Amino acid sequence: MSDVKLFSGTRSKYLAERIAYYYGKDLGKIQLNRFSDGEMQPVIQESVRGDFVFLIQSTISPADNLMELLLMIDAARRASAEYITAVIPYFGYARQDRKDKPRVPISAKLIANLLEAAGATRVMTMDLHADQIQGFFDIPVDHLRSEAIYMPYLHEQGLSNTIFASPDVGGVKRARTYSKYFKTDLVICDKYRERANQVAGITVIGDVAGADVILVDDLVDTAGTLCRAAEALMEKGARSVRALCTHPVLSGNAYENIEKSVLSEVLVCDTLPLRQQSPKIKVLSTAMLFSRAIRNMHEHRSISALFIEN
Hints:
Layout lengths: L3 E5 L4 H11 L6 E5 L5 E5 L7 E5 L7 H15 L4 E6 L18 H12 L3 E5 L14 E4 L2 H10 L5 E5 L5 H11 L3 E10 L2 E8 L6 E9 L3 H12 L4 E9 L5 H7 L4 E5 L11 E4 L2 H12 L12
Parallel strand pairs: 1-4, 4-5, 5-6, 6-7, 8-9, 8-11, 11-12, 12-13, 13-14
Antiparallel strand pairs: 2-3, 9-10
Helix pairs in contact: 1-8
């Protein structure tokens, strides 16, 4: 069987090192050279001919992170790697998955095209903003779910009197997965935006009086929606509100918003590094899940077997 080689981009090295540790291999040697104008040149410093190559990099802003991943893929392809899997813990630009108004790009589809054109033969990612983004690819996509991390953690907390909630209508399916598994009620926060990243108002659909509410979302950006939803839930009589958000984008005043909010805790994964620490933010690691998925893929075993079926 072909050998497995794990390589990391600059942005995700903190996570790639833990994935490699759980997999039982050292990260492969790769060097990123830069010309004086900032142009990048990743150099793979060991043979990958005929190997299963896994390139680990989240495509968070700035765009250099995406460009670095694309160049690593091209370098591996030209070095005759047999299979090249782009391991993208956080798939950037996923929120732009359709034309919601005239003359805007469908950026998620463009990123899919770029990854394929660079030479990726497979993509592994976690909690896409919308499941249908998998259909933008003509190569296999292994879509890992953070439920495999959060559900065991919540079990250990001994939940009682808990209700799961979606901070918007688009996330209902995600929140329902948790409410179905834990056999609890589901609440929906119907939000209205006047412009991007600004919520004008929220209506709570469902009864939360006296309950400990857990908001479920795929990412937290400015935390505006999350904090407004938590406030609306408390106004409706919730006893406490915490949140599960896979990807801690946390841009702008996100940290300040969370610390000033009524949220008691925000659980996130390490698909992105935190810019700063916060007493309200707890990070759970995805490294073991990614390492198991990589092993299963290499050994031609099921990826879905890693998840709790509902």
